[in-house]
Specification:
The complex is a heterodimer of chains A (363) and B (324). Chain A is α+β, with helices and mostly antiparallel strands. Helix content of chain A is 23%, strand content 33%. Chain A has two domains: 231 residues, 3-Layer(aba) Sandwich (Rossmann fold), CATH 3.40.50.300; 119 residues, Beta Barrel (OB fold (Dihydrolipoamide Acetyltransferase, E2P)), CATH 2.40.50. The mean pLDDT of chain A is 91. Chain B is an all-alpha fold. The longest helix of chain B is centred in the first third of the chain and has 39 residues. The chains are: A alpha+beta (363), B mainly alpha (324). At the A-B interface, strand 6 and helix 2 of A face helix 9 and helix 10 of B.
Chain lengths: 363, 324
Amino acid sequence: MANLKLTDVAKTYGGTVEVLKDINLDITQGELIVFVGPSGCGKSTLLRMIAGLEKITGGTLEIDGQRVNDVPPAQRGIAMVFQSYALYPHMTVRENMSFALKLAKKTPDEINEAVNRAAKMLQLDQYLDRLPKALSGGQRQRVAIGRSLVRDPKVYLFDEPLSNLDAALRVATRIEIAQLKEQMPDRTMIYVTHDQVEAMTLASRIVVLANKGIAQVGSPLELYERPNSEFVAQFIGSPSMNLLPGEITGTGEQTTIKLEDGGQAVSHYPTTDADMGMKVNVGVRPEDFIETEGDYVYHGTVDITEALGEVTLLYFRPDAEGRDAVIAKLPGIHKDVRGKDVRLTATPDKVHLFANGTSLLYR
Amino acid sequence: MSPILQGILTIAFGVGGCVAYFYGSNWVLDKVIFPPKPDDNGRNINRATIVRPWLFLFPAMFALGLYLVYPVVGSFYRSLFNRAGDEFIAFGNYTQMFSEEGFRIALFNNFLWVLVVPAAATFFGLLVAQLTDKLKWGNIAKSLIFMPMAISFVGASLIWKFVYANDPDIGIINALRDFFGAAPVDPLQIPFWNNFFLMVILIWIQTGFAMVILSAALRGIPEETIEAAIIDGANPFQIFFKIKVPQIMGTIVVVWTTITILVLKVFDIVYAMTGGNFDTEILPSYMMDYMFRDDGRATAVAFVIMIIVLPVMIWNIRQARKEM
């Protein structure tokens, strides 16, 4: 029912300031797409372009095969949930939710039915006659979601809907959104967030935006396990993936790398003879490091430890000026390692290889 | 001494006196009356903190008492006496006044003013505020519309005397009539409607005030609520009337009531334009007619005006507090 197709979509302000370019994206019905990216990468702008609140200055946007570049927002079959809730402060919850239907000249019976159904889904029944100011943050956001529900749109747009909520409510509301999506498997949702956990847990596919364009599109685990670039590798996952410079010394089904710091790594990335001697960055996620006594990928002096209970974060002293500190996330509690030399290794399937910022898997 | 020098000296003494009072009284409080003592420092600081607000409030309260509270009581008392002020006649001034046609006309005209001027000024102010909101040259338009605020009522009346002038070479209304071949008329002598020609002047002045306040209020509306309304399918009119106006209703009421209070005080326009002739009298100008000639009657009119203003004022203050 609702496929979105973005072709070469671009956004420039005032004809000179380029914010987004060459956005190509196919969204199929029923997907929950999450836009993530660093601050200012244009993820909210892209969402607002889909909503029709920002003009598309290049390329085409199609909803169900129809070009909607110049279609007013209300006729695009979309609904949007804002970060600040954007409830109409002078209207009760019921009026807020029925506003769009009234404008669409629906009969009172239809409006009542739609509002009551949405209120039931979101457990807002008791609050229908209250003004937004008498509601808590979580309730307000539910009203905002309810306002989009009653319109039964083809595409739901969420613009950082949980950012204004406190941590506990954020988790609860996130789960509510996930459940909502499950109840409406044929509805398409596009969700903008800067919170990785939201992206990983909610998305059927994640779109990583960077440098005015799309860095990678894929399922959460695809992005986690097979990032196509150093940027995506470091952006997805927290703390970020460690990157260690080295040189390929053995090629084939598996690749052997000699690291500049003296360690040795084996990666499951296949390479050819031509790659022999290539300078690469070896990527290992903090949680993939294993403490070892024998051969190591990395060894160093532990600078700081952060014991979180189920895991301990080890921050190693940087080997050289300007190099990022290597971080390891080891299961359990390791209180006694501070100031000591620790050797780390990783299994070949957890070792990533990048050359010139790009993954060797995606050459 | 030249008037300019006098003015400068007055300003210097006034402003300097204020600074000296607040600084000096504060100094006396902290250093002389409750100086910090080494052994019991906290007690004196607390005492000074309790006294300080009253010290700073005193000039304002004193001035308000002398120039506001006392005159109200005094006026009421005076209104119970006869013209010469030597014979107590209770409500004689009031009963006499209500039986006169002049007063009834003034009351009726004033009612028209209160009905028309605040409504029109607020409406035009809101209209201008909304229309200039997103315009690049909106600020220029707004400054032009705001400018009449800087003109005194008498000055404005003089300007409009030219507009309404009988001579087609001077007055624009008669110039237009002349262009279409009609004989000149004096707009200020057309019964009933001349009231509205006078109101135009005050509307012209007050639209700027309404515009500035309402423009700020419109800017304060969260942009997201408007975007949400766009997505909900509201057209520009619906956005304006169903989303924007209700959100600034409090401010609209404050502007409306503020202008209403002003309308009940304006006498200069009528005084300068028609002198209250041709049935254009309103209560304040009616009061001015009697002032110094029959102070009993004048104070009685003043008191009637105050009774009328009072509820509007209370409402105004309540709304303004809610806004803050």
